[in-house]
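S2.1 Query sequence (Peptidoglycan DD-metalloendopeptidase family protein)
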Amino acid sequence: MKLNTYSKHIFIIAFLLIGCAKVYSQDTRESLEERRIELRDEIQKINSLRSSNKKKEKSVLTEVEDLDRQIRTTENLIKVTNQQANILTRDISSNTSKIQTLRKELESLKEDYGKMIQKSYKSKSQQSRIMFLLSSQNFLQAYKRLQYMKQYANYRRKQGDEIKVKSEELQVLNINLLDQKKVKEKLVIENRETRAQLEQNRKSQQVLIKSIRSKEGVFASQIKKKQQEINAIDRQIDEIIRASIAKANKESGSSSRDVYELTPEAKALAANFASNKGKLPWPVRSGVISMRFGTQQHPIVKSTTIESNGVRIDTDKGAKARAIFGGTVVSEVQAVKGANKAVMVRHGDYITIYNNLSNVYVTKGDVVSLNQDIGEVATSSSSGKTTLHFLIYKNTDKMDPEDWIGKM
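Output structure tokens follow.
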């Protein structure tokens, strides 16, 4: 008895594990396909942005940086496509095994059913059935024989139904197998084309990098100078935020200068903002990340590091920056030195900053709503790039926007 109970438990656990594995496999396939589509869209967007800027005389360094971003995205696409192909290979193998098992079961069922039909045929006449009943020695035996005949008929019907079900299941599996093979073939062809494009981009990159290597010191100086300009802009932003906190607290009677003194309404707004972490919309309708948050090694000039207090998003010419959450414009639209204009929107003790705008549509004190356009992103006259500098602060602490924006 104990052994039977143990066996049942093992069977149940095994069944659950198989079920979980199927669900996990399905989730993995769907998430990989979603990621593949995202990467393809990103590559197309990068290509589109590069094509629209071809007429501009960009520096070699900018061209290599753009190419490097495209190469890294393409490598990720190949990796994801390979993972999809591997899962499909496992599924195809599994379905092939299931088909073989079903065919054997179907053959066995048909064989048994054939024997049953033959046996039934030999005694199928109505007269033989009546004689079978009438030859009973008593009423009880006749009743039992009648029940046997009914059970036999039911069993035949069940066998026929089971053959039908197994045949349909086999048909579905065959169709699924063909579909999986077609999808895998498509992925393999796509991967082959993607690899060819990757090799072409790598060759172009190597040519450009060779010209950079010969003047690495010059480019390192350019990067350093550019970083100094960025640092100066970031310091101005920090000062504006501190001034905003100090002013707001002074008006509320608080002496704190580093954190906002929150009203109950502001606390609720901040909590709502925080609860949407990882789900907030992009600050532009479409674009690609050209610089990420934090200190990082320059992708081309390895001897140089760059630092970013937010993210930079390359977008389409004429693109609009939009509020990622409801809030209030906390300072007058600032003409930040060296970086066009910036808009700061307060959400309790969180601040979102939309920098490098050529035109703005809001002023200090305006209440903005989710996805409301707040300004037009500036386009560089030298590179032709339209880039939004986007930052998130909590009081004076810098946040990584990628932790807050969905699928960034």
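The two ends are 57 Å apart (CA to CA). The chain has a mean pLDDT of 81.
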